[in-house]
Amino acid sequence: MKVDIIGDIHGCYDELINLLEKLGYKKSSYSYHHPENRQIVFVGDLTDRGPHSIKTIELVYHLVMKQKNARYVPGNHCNKLYRYFLGNNVKAIHGLETTIAEYKKLTRKEQMEIKTQFIELYEQANLYEMIPEVNAVVAHAGIREDLIGRYDKKVKTFVLYGDISGEKHPDGRPVRRDWAQGYHGEKWIVYGHTPVKEARFVNKTVNVDLGCVYGNQLAAYQLPEEKIISVPSLQPFQANKFTLSHE
């Protein structure tokens, strides 16, 4: 098996199409197939902030649920949109407002279709994906070695939000411990969640969220080749969204 693990898309649909084409996927009607039968794995945060969250949901749903040649793990933004679609009282901030604005422009029929698709996609997803064929674990915000194999509430919080301490930075961002520094496992841990300008390799972990929605790049990590493939973002560059550390 060969896989392409794609970082946080955040509604950057056009960049996703560009990346799939660069990776060698061929379009046939609404389907994308790779001549080498490679499999796509999405690290979550499909929506919010970017211009085309609805189209991104539709494509990922088709690849994962219909075509069945892709996998998807949820991110924290996915979790929030899921709760919104269930009718829970969630605040339309931190990017969710852009997805809701797109959603409200749809007809009632289209709204029901996209809502049903996303709920189905989210509910079938594992908290993280273990892919023994390429010796990898894919989790949105990463996962500590001692948590692999568990699916409890603590693990859910970790894979969605990272190793949060409960404290906050002055700007409101949660303080996160750098869990990757303490990882000494043999499996690759491939994750996203925190935007970095270049793929961040620490021990046998790699962060593939290259901040596409903030104007940098959309990236995929190829296994077993251990290779980063990326395309430039079409969004305005926002330098303040990137930090030198894991924060």
From TrEMBL:
Family matches, as CDD domains: MPP_Prp_like
Database matches in Pfam families: Metallophos (PF00149)
Domain Calcineurin-like phosphoesterase residue range list: 1-196
Domain of life of the organism encoding this protein: Bacteria
GO cellular component, one term: cytoplasm
Gene Ontology MF, one: phosphatase activity
Entries under SUPFAM superfamilies matching the protein: Metallo-dependent phosphatases (SSF56300)
Protein name (Swiss-Prot/TrEMBL): Bis(5'-nucleosyl)-tetraphosphatase PrpE
Source species taxonomy: Bacteria, Bacillati, Bacillota, Bacilli, Bacillales
